[in-house]
Input
Amino acid sequence: MQNILEVKNLNVSLDGEKVIENLSFNLKAGENLVILGPNGAGKTALLKTLIGANKFSGEIRWKQGMRIGYVPQKFPFEKTMPLTVEEFLGFKKLSGEKLFQAIDSVGIKNNAVLKKKLGEVSSGQLQRILIAWALVDNPDVLIFDEPTASIDIEGEETIYKLLAQIEKERNLTIIMVTHDLSVVYKIADSVLCLNRKFFCHGAPQNVLNSENFRRLYGEEIKFYKHEHHK
Output
């Protein structure tokens, strides 16, 4: 299967500090990649670099014509900002029936949400709205930075079900940062272990072992893990 992404000798510095050093990996079409590593490992910096938001040295080569959607870990805005969901999605030139289709595609069935201000919707609804925003352009690749970081456990379940549904319906490639191992085993075809430098890359069953965890996190760790029900 053809590579859709090739990264070679990637180096990224932010505010004069090197956050990614000599990283190389490839990604094939339809392959879901989960990026693991401790806080400050450069995971978010990597995602932002892949979408062109950070300067870098080395090579990042996407297959020509790849459309990429990005869902950030945090969406910075003032809770009091008088911007409705409808107005927010309107920046994507959505109106009328297309607006309803966009929110329906991410499991929001109540159209009244469109009239709510962004600061009034729940964290789970906001995450779905951001996913809808990313899906509008029919991307080939969806990049998620800890998609459930600010959502409770029940909300996590529905978001991960939604991601599985989107992947199945749209035949997407997903790149995701998460700390939840149960999600890794359910979603990932490959795992990239990163702590500023490359530690491991491969199928979860091959690289997720206690030795790699010790090397990656510097100590014996216990991952948060819960079952995601179908």
